[in-house]
Write a structure and sequence with these properties.
The chain starts with a strand and ends with a helix. The protein is built from 8 helices and 9 strands. The chain binds NADP nicotinamide-adenine-dinucleotide phosphate.
């Protein structure tokens, strides 16, 4: 099974890539990047990097070459809110890949796994007092990605992940894991849990809702990690 990843050089996308590479059901991981990944990752035999100069342009030949992929894990994103990176780039991918799949796709719908956030809001009318710009821009993407899946149900499924605070391995080892544990599954998720859950959605999303909250990500992610360890 082939899985595509965008945002592979980032914290969350990087974890998704590492877990995709380790998963036996995934035979090929295609990362679309604007800069190289570290050599220990990029040398992996399952990995192929495609250099993208401008994420606003998705050439048809590039998409055609990967129209056999099962899913895209879209983990590109900014913290301040960027109309291009947080909205235009993913929407262009959705529309361009959708067009290719309309003519090319057979079998199960393509799964678009979108990293969003707990505090992202789809309602554009309501005034937000904190971080209004990034929360609303990403909310617009949620709306568009869900609407695309609704109108293209034969070829496309969208999954919106809404993690709260993401706890890195460094944070856990520095003792902040205790704070995370105190805050609980509604608010905090470990990066490994998030990565495991994203990879599972890419492989098989049966029974999952389109909008997935932090608690579901943390609990299911933990189950997946535990089943791997036994
Ligand atoms: N940390 C948390 O607790 C948390 C919780 C919920 C949601 N989130 C959201 O999750 C998203 C990803 O978080 P992260 O910590 O993984 O971020 P990160 O480490 O900063 O990674 C961001 C990724 O997006 C890419 N990117 C950003 N702007 C781009 C652009 N203009 N063109 C091409 N690529 C671009 C980066 O590529 P380059 O490496 O090439 O720059 C990188 O791969 C963010 O939007 C964040 O708001 C984070």
């Amino acid at each position: 099974m082939k899985v595509l990843v965008v945002g592979a050089t980032g914290m969350v996308g990087g974890e998704a890539v590492v877990q995709c590479l380790a998963h036996p059901a995934i035979t090929k991981v295609i990362v679309f990047v604007r800069r190289d990944l570290p050599a220990d990752v990029s040398d992996h035999p399952k990995l192929e990097s495609v250099l993208i100069k401008d994420f606003a342009i998705w050439p048809e030949n590039v998409l055609l070459a990967h129209s056999d992929a099962a899913a895209m894990i879209w983990a590109m994103g900014t913290y301040k809110g960027s109309i291009t990176a947080d909205l235009e780039y993913p929407v262009t991918f959705i529309e361009s890949m959708g067009q290719v799949l309309e003519t090319k796709h057979s079998g199960a719908p393509f799964r678009f796994v979108n990293l969003s956030g707990k505090f992202v809001r789809r309602n554009q009318e309501k005034r937000l007092w904190l971080l209004e710009k990034p929360r609303k821009i990403k909310g617009l993407l949620e709306t568009k990605a869900l609407a695309f899946a609704d109108s293209h149900a034969k070829i496309w499924e969208t999954f919106i992940l809404k993690p709260g605070g993401i706890m890195t391995k460094k944070m856990v080892s520095s003792g902040a894991g205790i704070i995370g544990a105190m805050m609980g599954d509604s608010w905090v998720v470990r990066i490994e849990e998030l990565g495991a859950f994203m990879v599972q959605l890419a492989i098989n999303a049966e029974g999952e809702e389109s909008i997935i909250d932090n608690a579901r990500i943390a609990r299911r992610g933990r189950e997946l990690l535990e089943s791997k360890a036994t």
